[in-house]
Design goal:
The protein has 210 residues and is of the alpha+beta class. The protein has a single domain, classed as Beta Polymerase, domain 2. The protein is built from 4 helices and 11 strands, in the order αβαβαβββββββαββ. The strands form 2 sheets. Strands 1, 2, 3, 4, 5, 6, 7, 10 and 11 form a 9-stranded mixed sheet that branches. A two-stranded antiparallel ribbon has the order 8-9. Strand 10 and strand 11 form a beta hairpin.
């Protein structure tokens, strides 16, 4: 079975679990996966090594997040041993509200399946922020760009995309319509000097490479 087929099965299972946990309507395709959807006919960007899914934290509860993580660990016919946590299960928790920053999963070994990064976005100071957890870089985008839009098919699986897909791609990836060696440059808004217990800090705007 090909790597893309396994990854499609993994994404289908993620969507199924998200619906059962009540978080599907807060979930959307993000970053390179969204770019792959638009620029590469609903598939992965050539050379990419993971999928990216965003989840809007304000639309769900910490209990729903925990239920989702519990569900994706349950064995299935396609992932019979430990569900989607068999080979990769990283969870970074927030200190201020018992929610999550980021989880990464993969249902099969790296040579057989792409991992999927889940980014739990939260709104503050007019931006939607995401990061891997305490000590990591916190990046943001204008809050109005991170809103749930219609469903689209990625790897043959229906999943929501941002309502303002063109605007958020313009923000994340300058000249995103043309593939460039090393990736496309991106505009960045950073949250710095973060107090991880209270999630306070300073907003800094800059431009850097993707």
């Amino acid at each position: 079975m090909s790597k893309l087929i396994n990854t499609s099965l993994q994404l289908a299972r993620q969507v199924e679990c998200a619906k059962q946990a009540g978080i599907y309507d807060a979930m959307f395709l993000a970053f390179g996966s969204l770019l792959g959807l638009v620029r590469h006919n609903g598939s992965m960007i050539p050379g990419d090594d993971d999928m990216d899914v965003g989840i809007i934290s304000e639309m769900i509860t910490p209990e729903q997040q925990k239920e989702y993580i519990k569900l994706i660990q349950q064995p299935t016919a396609e992932f019979p041993e430990h569900g989607l946590f068999e080979y990769r299960g990283l969870v970074n928790r927030r200190q201020d509200n018992d929610g999550h920053f980021w989880i990464s999963i993969r249902g099969k070994p790296a040579e057989e399946c792409f991992k999927c990064c889940h980014w739990f976005f939260w709104a503050q100071h007019g931006y939607s922020w995401h990061c891997k957890g305490p000590g990591s870089l916190v990046k943001g985008a204008p809050e109005q760009f991170i809103s749930i839009g219609p469903e689209a098919e990625f790897l043959g699986v229906k999943i929501h995309i941002p309502k303002m897909t063109g605007a958020i791609l313009d923000f994340w990836y300058t000249d995103w319509g043309t593939p460039r060696a090393g990736g496309n440059s991106a505009k960045k808004v950073l949250f710095t000097e973060v107090d991880w217990k209270t999630m306070t800090g300073k907003v800094v705007e800059q431009t850097c490479s993707r």
